[in-house]
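Lab channel / #folding
Pinned by the channel admin:
"Please post every new chain as: sequence first, then the structure tokens as a reply. Keep commentary short and put observations after the output so the thread stays searchable."

First post following the new format, from NK:
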Amino acid sequence: MAHVDDPRTAPSIRWGILGAGNIAGSFANAVNTHTRSPLLAVGSRNRDRVERFATAHGIPTTHLGYRGLVEDPQVDAVYVATPHSEHKALALLAIAAGKHVLVEKAFMRNTGEAEEVFAAARTAGVFVMEAMWTRFLPHVAALHQVIAAGEIGEIVNLTADHGQWFETDPTSRLFDPALAGGALLDLGVYPVSFAHDFLGEPDAVSAVGALTETGVDGQVGIVLSYGERVQATLSTTLWAKTPTTASISGTEGNIQIAGDFYAPTSFTVTRRDGSTWTFDRRASMGLQYEAAEVARRVTAGETESPRMTWDNSRGVLRTMDAVRAQIGLVYPGE
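Reply from TO:
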């Protein structure tokens, strides 16, 4: 079965974190626990929050605001863990300071913003990657190996869902259009990126959606078409906790990926003759794998990852741009 290198074997790079929210905390825990790389600085606009975050994660340096963090000479790479609305500005700020950048998914609000960031990174010669951690997990590597070996034949259908229940709160980033909230960019990016990982960029995109009272998407259903008979059926919602499972079905069998499909999990292969087997080598946490990928590529002098290339992020954003156009979702400032 596919081998994924232990993140502890990756070279050490010095991390700075922009943002001090929940995902930043998960990343800090994973890096501290499962890699050799130190967390040296964190920046936030809220003094109490950044100081609490630094204390909780053993980070020696705090910055009130973001410029001090990206210009900190201790820092090699910056992890951007702010709302989507700030991703472009902060990525560009870090790149201008000569820092390598890992940007939380969704990478940007739209494809145009991504092109600005990639152009800046190309000029500066720095590494940039979308933090789509799913692509680096052991079970996803194993899925690719199973499919490449022909165990389920030619893929015909892929399904994936990601729904979480959130209390409606207009002040929450998830419901605030100014912060590029909504189900698609926060949750739906996982099913969309999963489909792209196994099927590539679709030939056609069809979507229906329902907006919240604040004007962001509360629920979206998506069908991606590839050629004459291959489809991906995806869904996302802010209004219900869904199974968060996925499946990949082919001419010779199917694979059922347990929830949460986008996190370390198991899967079961069922062939057309009824025989089955299960992969279950779940990793602890999971964000350490993307952090290790950044460390390896930065140390090697590379500017992008072959598992999450700039073109991969462009393709995912093109699909989400098409979905948003069909459901009538435009963010302020776009």
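NK: The mean pLDDT is 97.
TO: also worth noting, Residues 138-282+316-327 form a domain with the Dihydrodipicolinate Reductase; domain 2 fold (CATH 3.30.360.10).
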